[in-house]
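Is adenosine monophosphate placement plausible here? Inputs below.
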Amino acid sequence: MIVVLFGPPGSGKGTQAARIAALTGMVHVSTGDMLRAEVARGSDLGREAQPIMQSGALVPDELMVRIIERRLAEADAAEHGVLLDGFPRTLPQAAALDAMLTRNHQAVGRVVYLEVAEGVVRERILRRAATEGRSDDTATAFVERMRVYQRDTAPILEHYRASGVLVDQVDGSPPIDEVTEQIRALLAGPAAPDAGRAAPSSPAASTRS
Ligand code: AMP
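Reply from A.M.:
I modeled the complex. Tokens:
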């Protein structure tokens, strides 16, 4: 099963994906973490990505699609299922993901949308800046990341809803444990048939359009 963990910057995707992976055995695939590892290694990719990430913009789609295709081809992905954190981030990435999964007779099983108000995520990110030292956790980069999220990433939700993928909306503002429990319960609940494509009825906590 492929689950897309979706939400604005600072909504807790990374934190929640790591916790859900630990609870379920699913593989946490974070494109942001993969890129940060490349930057730390000083690879060509890292050198190309670093200034883009620092500005709050997006790394080119072709590059990201190649990275994710390689990662999803690894054995653990098929064996344990995947929690995608930070991918897809644009409609072309979502389309490329659909195409690569279709080639392997797979599909995105469901999308978990972590909803958090902009003021709350801004505060979280600036607090995280003080503790984690991420170079894109600045007030200026945050403005750009939110702009990019609204323009390029948010439309993906409609893409999934329109193609019949179950989209579960979870309030990401309560304490971390509560959010984890909500997501865990959702994933333990009924999944849609056919690897998660359109289900005849949704759980109460789910939103469909
Ligand atoms: P994240 O840790 O998911 O917030 O990602 C940090 C930064 O890495 C983003 O602001 C982008 O610059 C870059 N990045 C991560 N994932 C993607 C993606 N799927 N497409 C393009 N850029 C990405």
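Short version: Residues 9, 31-32, 35, 52-53, 56-59, 64, 86-87, 89, 93, 136, 145 surround adenosine monophosphate (CB under 6 Å).
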